[in-house]
């Protein structure tokens, strides 16, 4: 399976690591550490040394309750980083929902638009459709960042997430965007309860049935803190575990903060996978006649 992006055809026959670059002062996990362009670029280089294969640069925090950022401020945060990051030899994704930001980063050579609103802002889908090859990540979000965790989704969220993502992808293809450009993200933490988030992980196969690659963004999320009792800066091990479980269940892009440790865990899993000839659903085949 190939993910077509502006400059790269990304081979998704195995999971790929997307390193997170928060060029913001208020991100939930590392706000302020990479807020300057120089610090963000150094972080890009560090992530690549640790094994990242894609970079995802964002200039607006979308943690629950976060305020919207003015267009000029987001551009000031993101453009200097993207301008240099596109020279690093890997696909560069920009995490934004504003069409004006999308246009300017694509003009600078960015490869992927990663949109929490799934291109629902006016003009966003049309802008992406006008670009001949850029990749896109369509994410499910319930409500908006200011209210999504005030009133999370109710009941079994998977049918709703499935329907939303299928419609978003089909709508984009109706604008002549090729299927090979689209990756889906089920939106961990975006208007869902802890139980719903883990249900989506357990049932990833149902999302994969849509036929698009999946991006999993579990890194340092509050659901991991809820089940472990760990603060955000202590969630390295749970984050790696969740990324590995997502990969094992078919996710092909893992959006993470802790690149080196995730790469190490995937290396062990992939080494085992090459020699795994055990039958699937082993427990269900157990002889219980005795």
Structural class: alpha/beta
Helix percent reads 25-40%
What is the number of helices? Answer: 10
Instruction: Report the span from N to C terminus.
Output: 45 Å
β-strand number: 10
Overall pLDDT score = 91
Main beta sheet? 8 strands, parallel, barrel
- What is the name of the CATH class? Alpha Beta
- Gyration radius over CA: 19 Å
Oligomeric state of the chains present here: single chain
Topology overview:
Layout: E1 2-4, E2 9-11, E3 16-22, H1 37-50, E4 54-58, H2 71-85, E5 92-95, H3 99-107, E6 112-115, H4 124-130, E7 135-139, H5 158-173, E8 182-185, H6 194-202, H7 204-208, E9 214-216, H8 222-228, H9 236-248, E10 253-256, H10 259-273
Parallel strand pairs: 3-4, 3-10, 4-5, 5-6, 6-7, 7-8, 8-9, 9-10
Antiparallel strand pairs: 1-2
Helix pairs in contact: 1-2, 2-3, 6-8, 9-10
Structural account:
- With 290 residues, this protein is α/β, with parallel strands linked by helices.
- The chain is 38% helix and 14% strand.
- The chain has a single domain (2-275), classed as Dihydropteroate synthase-like (TIM Barrel), CATH 3.20.20.
- The strands form two sheets. Strands 3-4-5-6-7-8-9-10 form an eight-stranded parallel β-barrel, surrounded by six helices. A two-stranded antiparallel sheet has the order 1-2.
- Helix 2 (71-85) packs parallel to helix 3 (99-107) and helix 6 (194-202) crosses helix 8.
- The longest helix is centred in the middle third of the chain and has 16 residues, at 158-173.
- Mean pLDDT is 91; it is low at 280-290.
